[in-house]
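B., you asked whether I could sanity-check this one before it goes into the benchmark set. Here's the sequence:
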Amino acid sequence: MRLAAPLLAGVVLVLGTGTARAGYDEDTFVRKSIPAYAIPTPARGAPPADTVIGALRPYRIRKGDTLIDLARYYDLGMNEIAEANPGIDPWVPPVGATILLPTAWVLPCCTYEGIVVNIPEMRLFYYRHSPGDPHTTIVYTYPVGLGRDDWRTPSGKFKVRGKTVNPQWNIPESIRQEHIKERNDPRTFIPGGDPENPLGKYRMELTLPLYGIHGTDIPWGVGMQVSHGCVRLYPEDIERLFPLVPVGTAGEFVYQPVKVGTRAGAVYVEVHRDIYGYAPALYREASVALERARLGARADRDRLLAALEDLSGVPMRISPEPDEPAPASAQSVPVAPTEVSHDGAPHPDKEQAGND
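And here's what the prediction gave me:
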């Protein structure tokens, strides 16, 4: 039994009208509902009052469902739905089984403006002031596909320097040689609008050379390490994000396998796989994150250890329930002696870079 309680919504099983049904087509995904979240605009350099958004939901499997289709319909990455439901066959989940839709997230630390991509969880967050109300910030969040282990997505700050509809993919020579070796494909470019163009219909060019945020020709790759370093979104997600982001928007790639946050006075931790092996000591990552947020004294060590072992990628409560005593000092999370940073992920100047 989990010591750390997940952030479950007080709702019935997701079923019936308006929910995902077995049998999906592209039009179903185009029309899917993607919520955005309103938070009070934080003071510059300070976190929001609450840093957990969304809520987890149970879903009962219907005949014909796959986790791949459910992930896309509920705007999740394949990594998110699989890690939240270990042991469930992604292609043939048992009919009648109840799975968890991990539609809750701790906001990454410590930037709450512009675009933030957290590499280990393979998710993008976009912060935008509500039109006409500077005291409210709207948070849009989307799952993404990122770089393979041999073409890693780097950490680093950037700005959006341009936007293109139906971009042509000019294939870098290193990738072209890979295509020749793998499938005897010597093409030097793929025109915009071609169904095999991995950039999809929309691309945002970044000041990080050769990296971009764009659509995809393989939607099932969202939530997977499939690209040559770029950020891939579901086609329907990039279509919605593209017009919202002006040229000049600032952004950052961060590497945070452990995130901590609060909601309504409770402390939560969200733990993801260390996909590139930059943060092998997750307990240390957690203690640093808690100390940075000044939450260490409110976290129970046993609950934290359970969440770190669970590795489900969902926000887990690590502070006591209202009817429980506060954690004893011996059981509270010790302060890490020194700060760690990875954004330990290598800077793009030190990595080979692709542009898909």
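One thing to flag: Helices lie at 26-30, 67-73, 78-84, 173-183, 235-241, 282-292, 301-310. Otherwise nothing jumped out at me.
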